[in-house]
Specification:
The complex is a heterodimer of chains A (115) and B (116).
Chain A lengths: L2 E3 L4 E5 L4 E3 L2 E3 L4 E8 L5 E7 L5 E3 L5 E5 L4 E6 L8 E9 L8 E2 L3 E6 L1
Parallel strand pairs in A: 2-12
Antiparallel strand pairs in A: 1-4, 3-9, 5-6, 5-10, 7-8, 8-9, 10-11, 10-12
Chain B lengths: L4 E3 L2 E4 L5 E6 L6 E7 L5 E8 L2 E4 L8 E5 L5 E5 L8 E8 L10 E2 L3 E5 L1
The chains are: A mainly beta (115), B mainly beta (116).
Chain lengths: 115, 116
């Protein structure tokens, strides 16, 4: 079955510390991978996406993610977390090269930032 | 440029009542999606419009849910009659083009529906 697993429901990181949010997927076709962020009262905002090429992708707000096919993972990283990064983060997978694709989401990871 | 807009932002209704959610996609976006997040669960796909046609409605939970997209512009999602388990946040998203490879899906802020 197609699925996305985010094993960490809630993570707390000190401001200035590094961050890694884990994402594993199970998908039959070539995956098209995303990370979204939702801040309180806001919609989902795309941080970055991967569909081909360099397996290390850069996104907005200083985030990056690395696609590892052998591990079926697409972990999100940031070298130095800011208090404004506190939000809920969602990993998602879609069908690559599909004419209109429904995304499959993980359950989300809530990030808290301590001072 | 306006983003994806959803109305209302919150709705509280009684079990058995009808509620209609509206989504205005980004102008020119052919693809429109509805998703739902029930508390504590993942965001789940409900259906996908390409212009005014339903491309995929495999995620619609049952026949109490009816989605329309008039003239390929805005979309409505009606729940009739609402049940307690329909409570959650309903997201709308839109993206460009029929073949959306590489095309980002833009999400609205969601409608929080509470059925009491």
């Amino acid at each position: 079955a197609q699925s996305v697993t985010q094993p960490d429901i809630h993570i707390t990181v000190s401001e200035g510390a590094s961050l890694e949010l884990r994402c594993n997927y199970s998908y039959g076709a070539t995956p098209y991978l995303f990370w979204y962020v939702q801040s309180p009262g806001q919609g989902l905002q795309l941080l970055l996406k991967y569909f081909s090429g360099d397996t290390l992708v850069q996104g907005i707000k200083g985030f990056e993610a690395e696609f590892k096919r052998s591990q079926s993972s697409f972990n999100l990283r940031k070298p130095s977390v800011h208090w404004s990064d506190a939000a809920e983060y969602f990993c998602a997978v879609g069908a690559w090269a599909s004419a209109g694709t429904a995304l499959i989401f993980g359950k989300g990871t809530t990030l808290s930032v301590s001072s | 440029e306006a983003g994806v807009t959803q109305f209302p932002s919150h709705s509280v209704i009684e079990k058995g009542q009808t509620v209609t959610l509206r989504c205005d996609p980004i102008s020119g976006h052919d693809n429109l999606y509805w998703y739902r997040r029930v508390m504590g669960k993942e965001i789940k796909f409900l259906l996908h419009f390409v212009k005014e046609s339903k491309q995929d409605e495999s995620g619609m939970p049952n026949n109490r849910f009816l989605a329309e997209r008039t003239g390929g512009t805005y979309s409505t999602l009606k729940v009739q009659p609402a049940e307690l388990e329909d409570s959650g946040v309903y997201f709308c998203a839109s993206s460009q083009g029929i073949r959306d490879l590489g095309s980002e899906a833009f999400f609205g802020q969601g409608t929080r529906l509470t059925v009491v």
